[in-house]
Amino acid sequence: MQSTDEVVTLGYDRHSYHLITGSFDCSIKLWDCRSGKNARTMKGHKGGISSAKFNFLGDQIVTGSLDGTAKVWDLSSGKCILTLGKKNDEVLSVDCNLVGTMIATASANGSCNVYDQKNGEVIATLIGHRGEVSRICFNPQGNKLLTAGSDSNCRIWDAATGRCDQLLEGHRDEVFSATFNYNGDMILSGSKDNTARVWRC
């Protein structure tokens, strides 16, 4: 599986039939896991791809780009069906909830937004991090969001209202990655301070 520039994001669909790769060459590639062949290449972003996620059904993907936008792609046609964001800063992370109703984005300027996946309208804006937010993800239930930032903190948010429900302090340097466990009651975070931490939420 070859791209023309750095591959910085990838992921499987839930059946492991296909995987996606996103590259700094501004393209997203869909690969057949059984044959290893490129099934489709999607282009439309004007900057490198920083994040890419399959939806639960595996028929769409959401991508975030250094061009400041997020896009939703239909995999059967390879066409972009929705563009989110105002190109105000680099989008570093994206996620979608399991039922396919909301998309969340995190940006280098510290802004995070939750969008209605049907019409692209902003449902909530998450305000609290000081500096860039490198990671955003939904919990398995789809009602909470987790963010990780360069301010060395993680935060848990109500996805519908944008209210910060919990501040996770303890890392001594920026947090690059964080995720919920399968049940959504514990969090794992990894930081530039050379530690990983487990939190109960």
Largest sheet: 4 strands, antiparallel
**Secondary-structure content class:** mainly beta
Radius of gyration: 16 Å
CATH topology of the largest domain: Methylamine Dehydrogenase, Chain H
Number of helices: 0
> Which stretches of 5+ consecutive residues score pLDDT under 50?
none
Strand segment tally: 19
Give a summary of the structure in a few sentences.
The protein has two domains: 1-86, Lipocalin (Beta Barrel); 88-201, YVTN repeat-like/Quinoprotein amine dehydrogenase (Methylamine Dehydrogenase, Chain H), CATH 2.130.10.10. The protein is built from no helices and 19 strands.
Secondary-structure topology with pairs:
Layout: E1 7-12, E2 18-23, E3 27-32, E4 38-43, E5 49-54, E6 60-65, E7 70-74, E8 79-84, E9 91-96, E10 102-107, E11 112-116, E12 122-126, E13 133-138, E14 144-149, E15 154-158, E16 164-168, E17 175-180, E18 186-191, E19 196-200
Antiparallel strand pairs: 1-2, 2-3, 3-4, 5-6, 6-7, 7-8, 9-10, 10-11, 11-12, 13-14, 14-15, 15-16, 17-18, 18-19
How would you describe this protein?
The chain has no helices and 19 strands. The protein has a four-stranded antiparallel beta sheet, with no helix packed on it. A four-stranded antiparallel beta sheet has the order 5-6-7-8, with no helix packed on it. The model has no long low-confidence stretch (mean pLDDT 95). The protein folds into two domains: 86 residues, Lipocalin (Beta Barrel); 114 residues, Methylamine Dehydrogenase, Chain H, CATH 2.130.10.10. With 201 residues, it is mostly beta strands. The protein is globular and about 45 Å long.
